[in-house]
DNA sequence: GTTGACTCTATACCCGGGTACAAGGTTGAT
DNA sequence: ATCAACCTTGTACCCGGGTATAGAGTCAAC
């Protein structure tokens, strides 16, 4: 199939496919005499894999690492698990960080004893020199 | 003080200060005859406020909204709280999303009954059906 | 055999939040 | 008076992950 159909079936933009090819995520497909790219059905699955991995928070670089490993046959389960675990750790860190932000803001809102009196507000405190703020 | 000192005291880059000025986050300081920017001490506090808000996950645009409100005197507590609460909601959404990713990956790792047997791995499953791409 | 939809390459642009020159002018201590 | 360290503007570049455009060539249905 040509690129447009692949894009439709994999639910991505045509440009995105060419981008993925350029950065080495997708192998270069065959070409017609006209120069048109010619894909087989498994390209659909492959792009879906990429999108799925992306939706799990893997960056395109990480995905490329997985692909490269697999391609070189140098992949072991340990390698793969290590990548997955690194991603888990990154996700956990991010969650911790967001929870800390959450708490700081929530704390500000809770301890702002000024339903309508502006100057006591946590935001005002932020403006007025970091007197007592977290 | 001149921009270099301000940058040092506020612990940001000189370029960053100019960027903040350009996007309207910092109001334009006075200038010497030579054209040099001349800041007062409260600029330090102000930049620290920006960094603090940023560390709580506010984007520069959100911070600009807070500042604009304050400048225009059109700020009410309700406005400020609304912004803070919007940020809280955004943070919560992000956390939900990360937790879903976390679970999906963890599930994959747990249910991959192949400490060293490659073909049953969750990653391999992702690849399955496209044996011949990269 | 013409039309309209498709594809090709190359290049530029978008977002946010900066960072890095380059070429010139100023400051201030010696 | 010199000289390093500072400042000015303008421009371009970085990251990741795309999206948009122009100008030219190709495919297929009628």
Strand order of the largest sheet of chain A: 1-2
Choose one word for the global shape of chain A. Answer: elongated
Rounded to the nearest angstrom, the distance between the terminal CA atoms of chain A is 58 Å
Extract low-pLDDT stretches of chain A. 115-120, 127-134
Helix/strand class of chain A: mainly alpha
Rg of chain A over CA atoms, rounded to whole Å, is 24 Å
Largest interface, Cβ cutoff 8 Å: A-B, 56 and 52 residues
Biggest sheet descriptor of chain A: 2 strands, antiparallel
Helix and strand sequence of chain A: HHEEHHHH
State mean pLDDT of chain A (0 to 100 scale). Answer: 80
The total beta strand count of chain A reads 2
Quaternary arrangement of the chains shown?
A: homodimer
Helical stretch tally of chain A: 6
Give the % helix of chain A.
55-70%
Q: Which range does the strand content of chain A fall in?
A: under 5%
């Amino acid at each position: 199939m040509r690129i447009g159909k692949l894009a439709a079936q994999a639910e991505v933009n045509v440009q995105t496919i060419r981008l993925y090819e350029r950065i080495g995520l997708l192998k270069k497909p065959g070409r017609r005499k006209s120069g048109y790219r010619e894909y087989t059905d498994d390209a659909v699955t492959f792009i879906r894999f990429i999108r799925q991995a992306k939706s799990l928070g893997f960056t395109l670089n990480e995905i490329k690492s997985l692909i490269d490993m697999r391609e070189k046959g140098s992949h072991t389960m340990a390698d793969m698990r290590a990548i997955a675990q690194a991603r888990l750790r990154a996700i956990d860190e991010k969650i911790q960080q967001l929870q800390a932000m959450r708490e700081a803001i929530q704390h500000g809102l809770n301890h702002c004893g000024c339903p309508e009196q502006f100057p006591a507000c946590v935001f005002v405190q932020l403006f007025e020199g970091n007197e007592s703020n977290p």
